Every structure is written in C-alpha cells, then in structure tokens.
Amino acid sequence: MHWLSVLAIAFASNLDNLAIGLAFGVRSTRIPIMSNFIIALITMVGTYLSMTIGEIMAFYMSEFVANLLGAMLISGIGLWTIIDNWRKGGAETLVSHQETSGDPIRNPYAADVDKNNIISMKESVALGVALAMNNIAIGIGAGATNVSPLLTTMFAGLFSLIFIGFGSKVGYVMARTWFGKYSGIIGGVLLFLIGIYEMIA
C-alpha cells in the first residue's frame, strides 16, 4: 500500500478547495461548518466513484498496463496543470479569479448566489459538485494504479474540511504568500511526481 501516494493524491486533489477557501477568506465570505461538511462529503463521494471507475478499467488490463496508464494519466494532469499555470503568467494567484465567470472553480464568488457573504448548505452542494467534477480524471488515474480508494477518500474528505475551513480563516494573509501565488504549479508538480513514483514503485 502506497501511503505516500494516498496522502499526496488526497492533498494535491484538494488544492482547489484550499484556493476557494482562501478566495472566500479574502472577501470575508463565511463557510458555516455544515456547508463545509457537505462540500467534504461530495468530495469524498466523487473521489470514491472516480477511483472505482479506475479500478474497474484496470480489471480488464494486466497489472503492469493498468499501473502504467494510471500513472501516466496522473503525471499528464500534473504536467498540463504546470503548463497551464505557467502560460497564465507563472503565478496564478488564489485571488486572481475571473469574476465574470459563472464557474465556481474559476470564480468562487459565483457560488454565493444570494450575495450575502455566507455559503449556505444549498450553495455548498453546487460548489462541492464543481470541485468533485474537477478531480474525476485524478481519481480514475489513482484507481487504476491500485491506490486504496477507501483511504484516499477518507483523507480527501479530511483535507477538504481542513483546507476550506483554514483557507477561509486566513485567506487575506495567505493568498499573498509564495504558496498562495504558486499553488497551481505546486499542485501540478506534486501530481507529476506522484505519477512518476507510481511508475517506478
């Protein structure tokens, strides 16, 4: 069992959650604990389902081919993330979202539909689904490499809770640190390294 891969995948796949938490913190938008739990629960369901799909796909391949394809998918996503962030200026900050976009990932403020600076439980469902959809490919790749779906799902939910809760509390300060400025590239590098590790492990 690759504990390093479990933790790294759960961590890297939740950097979007951290970014959104920080963005809300910058705007003093509150995320009540129940809303945060709903987002974490949807993240867990999305992680488990996508990893299960990866496992099913791997069932029809040899272990070597499944592991190689899954690892290549994870590395490919990481490489694409690095290139995409680099093309946008090398430092896509956590506060430089496109406020004209209705996509909660590109513009987290769109999730606050009633503009009352509180993410309600109803609003958190849409946000949670958007975040889960964004991580489907990572989950499929991880499932194909035989990483434990149960453990990865548990840690994905835990990191989601921590990142969104913590991010919303310290958003204004942390969004301006080096981690805030380069989180997209950091996540890409981490995913790329996970894929390489799974290829040679």
TrEMBL record:
<dbReference type="InterPro" id="IPR003810">
    <property type="entry name" value="Mntp/YtaF"/>
</dbReference>
<dbReference type="Pfam" id="PF02659">
    <property type="entry name" value="Mntp"/>
</dbReference>
<protein>
    <submittedName>
        <fullName>Manganese efflux pump MntP</fullName>
    </submittedName>
</protein>
<dbReference type="InterPro" id="IPR014205">
    <property type="entry name" value="Spore_YtaF"/>
</dbReference>
